[in-house]
Structure formats: C-alpha cells, structure tokens
Amino acid sequence: MADPKGFLNHGREVATSRPVEERVKDWNEVYVPGSLLPIISKQASRCMDCGIPFCHNGCPLGNLIPEWNDYAYREDWAAASERLHATNNFPEFTGRLCPAPCESACVLGINQPPVTIKNVEVSIIDKAWEDGNVAPQAPERLSGKTVAVIGSGPAGLAAAQQLTRAGHTVAVYERADRIGGLLRYGIPEFKMEKRHINRRIEQMRAEGTRFRTGVEIGRDIKATDLKKRYDAIVIAAGSTTARDLPVPGRELKGIYQAMEYLPLSNKVQEGDYVVSPISAEGKHVVVIGGGDTGADCVGTAHRQGAASVTQLEIMPRPNDERHPADQPWPTFPILYKVTSAHEEGGERIYSASTTHFEGDQDGNVQWLHLAEVEFVDGKLTQKPGTERKIPAQLVTLAMGFTGTDRVNGLVEQFGLELDERGNIARDADFQTNVPGVFVAGDAGRGQSLIVWAIAEGRSAARGVDRRLTGASDLPAPIRPTDRALTA
C-alpha cells in the first residue's frame, strides 16, 4: 500500500489553475502544465488501503485505484500506467472530464477530503505518454470477422479498440468530419485539448482500426446495407436528441441548442473558421441549464468576449456539503459546484423558469422573461409576483438529451426495439432484438457520464466477441441494467 500515515500527514491538494485573466484570453486547458507531478506522490499516499475500496463501487470501469495509487506514490510510472490501462482505454479523457464518482465513494471522504483520484489518474497517463509507455497493441492474429462501429464517442472508440485488439477487423463510422463524437465537438478545448484525442486515434490506427468520417448510417448508407457488409455492428451513436424549450418566442433568432453553439467554437480551434458563426462577442448571454454542458457554454462565452453571462437552473441551489440523510456516503451527491468556467465570472440563478422570450422588430431575441419557482405538492410551481426580465441577445439551451437520433432512420431501418425510456433495448450481452446488432453507451443507457460510456463500450465488445467466436476473454465491467451509485 501507499504511506500508511499519508492521509494523516498530507492534506488534499489539487491541480493549480492558471489565472482567470490569462486563461480567458486563450483556449488552452485551464490548469498550469506540470503543476501536478511535484505533488502527486504525496496525494497518492493518502490512499488508505481501506480493505474494501468503495471507490471501485463508485466507478463503473472497475479501476484498480488503490493499486495505481501505490505505484504513483512510489513513482513507478510504468507499472502505474499498466494498472490504469488494465481497466480504462482512455484515462486521459476520464482524468480530465469525469466528475469523479470514485472520489465521492472514497472511504477517506467519510470525514476528510477524499483522495484526489482524478488528478492521480491524469498524472499517470500524462507521464506515460511523456515516457513513451503508451504503445499500439496490435493483435497477434486476425479472426477474419468484421465489425462496424457506428459513432466515435468514448463508447464507440472503446468498443472498437477492444474488438481490434481481439483480432477482428473494425471500421468506425462517424457522421462528423472528424473522429471523437462529443469529445471532439461537444467538449471545449479549455476542458480537454484535442491533441489527446488525436494521439489515441493514431494509436488505434496503428493497431488496425479503420475510420470513416463524414458518413451517417441511415442517410449516407442504409442500415440494411451495412448489416450485409459486416458480421456484427455496434451502435454507439449517443443520446443526441436535445431537450427543447417550447415557450413563446422560441422561434426568435439567437436561440440555439448547446450542441449547435459549442461545436462551432471547436471548429475555430481546428482551423475551419476564423470566427465562430455563432459568437457571444459583445452580447448578453443566457445559458439555460445548470449542468456540465451549461458550464461549457459559460466558459465558451467568456472566451468569446460576452458582455455578460447568466446561467439559469430550474432546480433549487444544491447544498455545499453532502447531507448524510439525503445523500449518504458512498453515493454520488448532487452538490453546488464551482467549475473553472464559473470562476471566470457570470451570474447563476437557481429556482428560475423561463416563461417567454422577447425580440426586436427584426426577430432577434433581446430579453428573457423568467419567474421564480418552488415545489408545491411535489411539483414545480411558479411563484406569483416574481416575474422579471433579463437581457438576452444570445441564448443557449443546455437542458440535457432525450434519446438517440430518430430522424436519420437508423433505428427504423434496423428495426430496433426501444425500451420504456426511449433508448435502444438490449439483452445481457448488449445485443439488440436484431441478431448481430449491439448497442453501447448513451444510445442504450441514456445520457450518462464518460466512465459509463467507456465501460459500456468495453462490455459490448465482449458480447460481440462472444457472438463472433463462441467465447471471449475480453472484460465486461458492467451489465446493461447496472446503474450509478445514488441515493
């Protein structure tokens, strides 16, 4: 184990952020490069060797957290990287983007700040890349079987890499012009620079995975034709149907879904545009939705030079600390979070509901009318006399997603059955009602975290491998019915 007295001798320290006035002028990651390595061994030493590592229950990947904490404490970076990759294909993604339910389940977190598991993870993988310890793992022999993966987000990439390494010939189909799914175009550069995706793609290419961009299954290629071409198919198309806001004035210009707004700023960083076609520069911006996607819109608006940024959330403000009765350890609590984007400015309004939008004579949105809401008999109800309006020249809707895309015809062409929540139904092996067609990630689970997406991709890969070969040595960390550890 790590230092038996580590958690007694050292307090929690996290990555150092660059000054706000500096980072809002660029799109680089917000943390000071190299700031973690000098402190990370001491932080890893805080791991308690607690006997029953509840962090394993918090993370669906089954990460061997105490083991790689011990290696990081001893600065055996090669061994730490091996343990990290044993359960996670892309730890540099999760180490930057995951909200760390493992830390919420850390035993030390019962009465102290938990171990900085996420920071240890990203330190290990960044050191592994720096030291050349991340190499392609090409299969020793090919199976002669072919697999198509639809979607190149974390679930699709994880499934593709696992199946390629098992010896199958895998092609990944992505409707966008670049590989990565929401990792590429939904996550701003300041949260994860896209070089991390690019080098993983090169690793996968070297292993034998093939990539087809700009191809949408259901439109460019019929699902039935794809099924004839491949021995198995994995649908990892995500949950991309955004929840809308049907209030008067929604048709005004200047109101966009978050996934209409965010990808364009990423395309600027890719060199496709000089300036985003949807820019917040000089505008009063309102972000509707208090989650991570909303925070991404806030940070993007800051960097585009917004005159003001206001974020609305219909639910009450969460607690600052875990309430033992409502959100007991080791569940993942809903707490008040101050992300890097919130540190950069703006106003956050809770218990607020948009009643309607108001525009100018040219049809451009200018004002957002809202009212306070409260729970009455278990239902959110508008409080009389609380109506007011705030300036809104650019509005982004970041209220979550309701299911996989039904417009492109993929679901209907395959003849897929849906579950009661509108997701693609699957059996214990992640196989749909259509033999040979599997589903992984948000398309089958619904909107979820990146760790669940990767875990789904790995588990679905095992189901595919079993169908194609009769047996499989690939790991399956979760079942389709597994759910996050919540109260």
Automatic annotation (TrEMBL):
- Work out whether the entry's keyword set contains Oxidoreductase: yes
Record-given protein name? Glutamate synthase subunit beta
| NCBIfam families linked | GOGAT_sm_gam (TIGR01317)
Amino-acid biosynthesis recorded as keyword: yes
Quote the Gene3D superfamilies the UniProt record gives. Alpha-helical ferredoxin, FAD/NAD(P)-binding domain
**Source organism of the structure:** Streptomyces carpinensis
Metabolic or biological pathway, per its Swiss-Prot or TrEMBL entry: Amino-acid biosynthesis
4Fe-4S ferredoxin-type domain residues: 38-69
Extract the InterPro entries matched here: 4Fe4S_Fe-S-bd, DPD_II, FAD/NAD-bd_sf, FAD/NAD-binding_dom, Glut_synth_ssu1, Glutamate_Synthase, Helical_ferredxn
Give the PANTHER family listed for this entry. GLUTAMATE SYNTHASE [NADPH] SMALL CHAIN
- Give UniProt keywords alphabetically: Amino-acid biosynthesis, Glutamate biosynthesis, Oxidoreductase
Pfam families associated with the record: Fer4_20, Pyr_redox_2
